[in-house]
Protein: G5 domain-containing protein
Organism: Anoxynatronum buryatiense
Amino acid sequence: MKKQIGLLIPMIIGMMLITAFGIPQDKTVVIEAGSEQFTLKTRVETVRELLDETDLILAEYDYVTPGPEDMIENGMTITIRSATPVWLQADGAEERLMTTENTVQGLLQSAGIQLGEYDQVEPAMMTLLKPETRVVVTRVQKEYYYETVEIPPQQITRFTDALPVDETRLVQEGEAGLTLARRARITKDGQPAGEELVSTEVLRPAMDHVEEQGRERLLITGDGDLIRYKEVYTMTATAYDAGYYSTGKNPGDPGYGITRSGTRVRPGVVAVDPRVIPLGSTLYVESLGRSSSYGVSYAEDTGGAIRGNRIDLYYESRSEALRFGRQSVRVYVLEDE
């Protein structure tokens, strides 16, 4: 039993010495270098000692994290980023830099480049850097100013049937308006680079200059014919036939089927108020409702109920007249040929 105790004493003393004097223990470390990654065990104390131990050679601008003087901890990951050569052009100078940044934004931050509100950067800020990427910073300045701008009135011509052909009359005198424009003079790297319109505010709207001009009165019929007319009316139209219920006459009676003008009634004859449309006028009756247009017709008749803007259209049968009923029409008084 005494012999066994004697053997334990050196072991206990050894463990006490390890604890007291800090004999190094193995630590597991992961090293990432670009796309490569490997794991190793080490007893060194600092990152620098580990790099020396593994014979890893760093270029002047390579970046290591944690830093070379940081202490090694078990399970630590050490990242080595190799520097990339890029070009940076800014503030009138161009230089070739070695950088471990991944993006254009990171390059500018590491280079201490402060961007103004309107400065431009090419390529875009989040572009990934590649060897020999050229990054250009353009300093943009804007000088704002205001000016008033006159708005010319629009020239508007309205064609009307109320005037003779080509005759004009003033409807409204035009008046110029006024706008307040905010503009910016732009310089890029100290050189003029044009102007831009920032905003506008209407101080006084322009008033259109309006004239009316007489036009030739032309009607395009439903058949595609072009007809000149001199007057046009919107009227209420009814229909009649030659029988007793429309004229009070029967076949054989004196004047049966004879119009006020002395002509024989027939399709195309209409009754009008002579105070509105003179007897003998040639008309074109255009439907504004459900039926087809009555077409070219002749003002040869009158009627006791036809007064003012009323017109009566002749049909050969009472059933046709009743079917027409009462409708709105547009009546064109055609020019004499």
The two ends are 151 Å apart (CA to CA). The chain has four domains: 21-81, 84-138, 142-213, 218-334. DSSP finds five helices and 21 strands in the chain.
